[in-house]
Write a structure and sequence with these properties.
With 230 residues, this protein is an alpha+beta fold. The protein is built from 7 helices and 11 strands.
Length: 230
């Protein structure tokens, strides 16, 4: 597939709720987005579908979102950030990796590439890396340093190494210094951390990675035919 020229952007949940085939057995998933949807995009010259929020979101992130609601607001209005990623797999509510691959195949059949949006520099605070691979996450050198940083760190689920005190992990942040308290900052100085997202997405059946901005900023994963070059 050549590089995309006209891109159509849509949230993954909206893609399913608004465009899944009416005859699809509930709950509908990405697998149920019909050929007619892609044909209508192609007729308008669209050759890339940018799907936002396809990865599994964090339960802790949902709790964080609920806490931001006004007291009288219904809890169902809360939604975890699509960039508060609990795991690098397609969300179960969207049908999982198999449904994502089915969506990609159907899109490709109409000459449309699929792009998944993700942030490479942070994950959810309950992501398994904090327990299993804490070296992939930015940490304060000491509890005193974390306290001095004034709201930049949180106590994590693993020991700091001396068996007495927890690790203090950095909250996720962006290049402008904004802090996102539902996330943890990935240590992009670590080659293992830089490689991990790509390895996981390859397991999802996606074929190519392109950095839309500088390392550590928002990137885009292009899922297309196995022979695709980006």
């Amino acid at each position: 597939m050549p590089p995309p020229r006209l891109l159509y952007e849509i949230r993954a949940d909206v893609l399913v709720s608004a465009h899944a085939a009416p005859a699809a057995a509930p709950p509908a998933t990405l697998r149920d987005v019909p050929d007619s949807f892609f044909a209508s995009l192609r007729a308008r010259g669209v050759d890339a579908l940018h799907v936002l929020g396809a990865f599994e979101r964090s339960a802790l992130g949902l709790e964080h979102a609920e806490a931001q609601l006004p007291p009288a607001a219904p809890r169902e209005l809360a939604c975890a950030s699509p960039f508060c990623v609990a795991d690098y797999v397609c969300a179960a509510s969207l049908g999982g990796d198999a449904a994502l691959r089915a969506l990609r195949a159907r899109a490709n059949a109409h000459g449309i590439a699929v792009i998944l949006d993700f942030v490479a520099n942070h994950v959810a605070r309950d992501h398994h890396w904090l327990r299993e691979h804490p070296a992939l996450i930015e940490r304060a050198p000491s509890a005193a340093a974390a306290i001095a940083a004034r709201g930049r760190f949180f106590a994590g689920p693993v020991d700091s190494g001396d068996g007495e005190a927890p690790s203090f992990f950095a909250y996720g942040s962006d290049a402008a210094g904004n802090v996102f308290c539902d996330t943890a900052q990935v240590s992009l100085r670590s080659p293992d951390a830089r490689a991990a997202p790509l390895e996981r997405r390859m397991k999802c059946g996606l074929s190519a990675l392109t950095h839309a901005q500088a390392a550590g900023k928002k990137s885009a994963l292009v899922a297309s035919a196995p022979s695709a070059r980006v």
